Every structure is written in C-alpha cells, then in structure tokens.
C-alpha cells in the first residue's frame, strides 16, 4: 500500500520536493553553521585589534577594554568549539590547547 494512493499528481510532486529539501537541509546544516578556519582567524585578529585600540584610547581598565576582552574571549571560544584550536595574533600561529589568558593584554 502506498502513502500517495488517492493523492493527486501535484500533491505527490510537492511531497517529493519537500522530502528532497529536507534531505538537503539535513546535509547542509552543520556546514552552514560552522565558520571556516580562515574566518575564525580573521574574527580573532579583528577582536584582538579592537582590544588594542580600546586600551590605547581608553586605558587598560576601561569599560571599553573590558568589552573588547569579552569579544576576544568569545571569538577564541567559538574557534575552540568549532575547530578545537584558536589563533594567537601576537605569535601568528594556531594553538591546539585551550590555554589562552584573557588578561594577556594587561601586561607591559
């Protein structure tokens, strides 16, 4: 017995298209959400730059610097979650340990 018995050709076509779309969305889902390693590196480099700017213009202990520290932390966490590594803009290399210091910009 067929599910589509007694269903018109237009309905069958729509059901087939919906099933195909479901399969495509299922397959593309994880790829669509995870950012590329290059984008991850760019995001961290940008956050690092913004933190340097905030420190230079407002001071190390300003609310602007604290905000940019949180942004940098979030960028590093996202890379870690998605790629199990994070970019160190100062050393220009990837780290494969969850070993960053959120206060690393507070030292002279």
Question: Could you name the key traits of this structure?
Answer:
108 residues; mainly alpha; two-stranded antiparallel sheet; 63% helix
Q: Tally the beta strands.
A: 2
Q: Could you tell me how far the N terminus lies from the C terminus, measured between alpha carbons in angstroms? A: 76 Å
Structural class: mainly alpha
Question: What is the share of helical residues?
Answer: 55-70%
Query: Helix and strand string, N-terminal first?
Result: HHHEE
The radius of gyration over CA amounts to 23 Å
The major sheet is characterized as:
2 strands, antiparallel
Characterise this structure.
The termini are far apart. This protein has three helices and two strands. Strand 1 and strand 2 form a beta hairpin. Helix 2 runs antiparallel to helix 3. The longest helix has 25 residues. The protein has a domain of 70 residues. A two-stranded antiparallel sheet has the order 1-2. It is elongated, with a radius of gyration of 23 Å. By secondary structure, the protein is mainly alpha-helical.
């Amino acid at each position: 017995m067929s599910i589509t018995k007694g269903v018109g050709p237009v309905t069958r076509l729509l059901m087939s298209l919906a099933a195909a779309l479901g399969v495509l969305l299922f397959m593309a889902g994880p790829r669509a959400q995870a950012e590329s390693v290059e984008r991850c590196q760019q995001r961290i480099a940008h956050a690092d730059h913004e933190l340097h700017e905030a420190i230079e213009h407002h001071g190390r202990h300003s609310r602007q610097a604290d905000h940019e520290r949180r942004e940098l932390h979030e960028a590093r966490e996202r890379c870690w979650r998605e790629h199990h590594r994070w970019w160190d803009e100062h050393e220009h290399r990837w780290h494969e340990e969850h070993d960053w210091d959120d206060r690393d910009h507070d030292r002279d």
